[in-house]
Amino acid sequence: MDRFMDIYGLNTTSESPLVFYPNLPDYILYLTVVSCILSLIGSLNILLAYIYVPDIQNFARKLFVYLTAANSLDNFGVIIGLIRYFIINDDTRAFVGWNSIKLLDICVFQALVTSYAPSVSFFWTTMIAFYIFMQVESPKTAKAMSKNSCLLLYHVIGWGLPAILCMVPLYYDVYGENFSTYTGPWCWIRSGLTRKETVTWMFVSVKGWEFFTYLVTAAVFMLILWTRYKKKRNPFTVNDASYNSLFPSDRFLMYTWLLLVLLRLPGNIRLALLLNNPTGNYPGRTLLMTIQSTLDASQAFTNFVCFFYFEKRILAFLYRCRCKCRDKEKNYGTLMNA
Fold first, then answer.
1. Of 1, 168, 213, 276, which alpha carbon lies 20 to 30 A from 139's?
2. Is the dihedral of CA 96, 97, 103, 104 positive or negative?
3. With a threshold of 0.70, does the pTM exceed it?
């Protein structure tokens, strides 16, 4: 902790969180790294599957790909935070040229990325839920929503609005080192602020939009179930396999918000405990931090597992490719022996 405090010259106050995690257990770092790598691999597989398997392409899947891109961006931000942590705690002095100003700039940049990317994923999750609801309530409206002319509006909401929201904390210089008090091994809202200021900026940058997403998507989910029951309409149809329809395997998209809630639950529990006890002396804090660091970085991997589990046509496509390769090898061998 002394080296962290020496680098940034920060001191705790009675109104600031008092527990620091400057020397984190190695297993937290390793689990976070593994989680990020698996998520990036999962994101790449989702993208490749969408591009090279035409049978699975529809508008809902396109929105899902954008959600995956946001999760990947978050993983890159976490990796930046991990690299910075390793630099600060490097005992070999290999990074002696990295002064506190460089490290603080990296910290602020990483905090901006890891605030922006989750906010983007929240907005895309909400738009996916709303689009599925319109498929149930009014298929004609959903078809109009899936036109390319409307796609610009989706991008403005999904990418542009979170950028504006995350620039506000940057303008007020509240991003920075928090010594993993309420995050994993990465930066967010800096230490040195009062408790009220810290909570306010948490909600302005990420948490407010996170809880807003939970409320909206849960309400939309209930409306989808009610509308399906009332109108006896199943939007996940096989007969209309067009770009504007939903596939039976798109059912998992209805539950992306629930996965989001579960994966981010440890971090929210940890934040609630910290707000209730600013000294941070609550039981199981290291365990909660370990789970938070692992799950927060695993959203893309979780989506990948669900996507490939429900979408059987991807496996069928890979099987056909394998059979074609075998046939080519067999034909090539026959020609060589002729």
1. 213
2. positive
3. yes
Measured between alpha carbons, how far is 83 from 288 in angstroms, rounded to an integer?
Answer: 22
**What residue spans define the domains of the chain?**
2-337
> Are the CB atoms for 114 and 78 separated by under 8 Å?
yes
Is residue 222 within 8 A of residue 210, CB to CB? The reply is: no
Over residues 132-174, the pLDDT tens digits come to 888 888 888 888 888 877 888 999 999 999 999 999 999 999 9
CA distance 274 to 178: 13
Q: How distant, in Å, are the alpha carbons of 101, 173, 207 from that of 105?
A: 6, 11, 23
Which segments of the chain have a pLDDT < 70?
Answer: 1-22, 90-101, 231-244, 278-280, 324-338
DSSP H helices in 232-255: none
Residue 304: CB atoms within 10 Å: 22
Cβ atoms within 10 Å of 27's Cβ, excluding its own: 11
Tokens representing 134?
A: 């319109």
Would you tell me the crossing angle of helices 299-310 and 256-276 to the nearest 10 degrees? 160
Element (H, E) at 49: helix 26-52
The total of other beta-carbon atoms located within 10 Å of residue 277's CB is: 14
The residues pairing with 176 across neighbouring beta strands, listed in sequence order, are 188
Secondary structure letter of residue 203 according to DSSP? I
CA dist., res. 225 & res. 235, Å (int): 11
Is CATH 2.60.40.10 the right assignment for the domain spanning 2-337? no
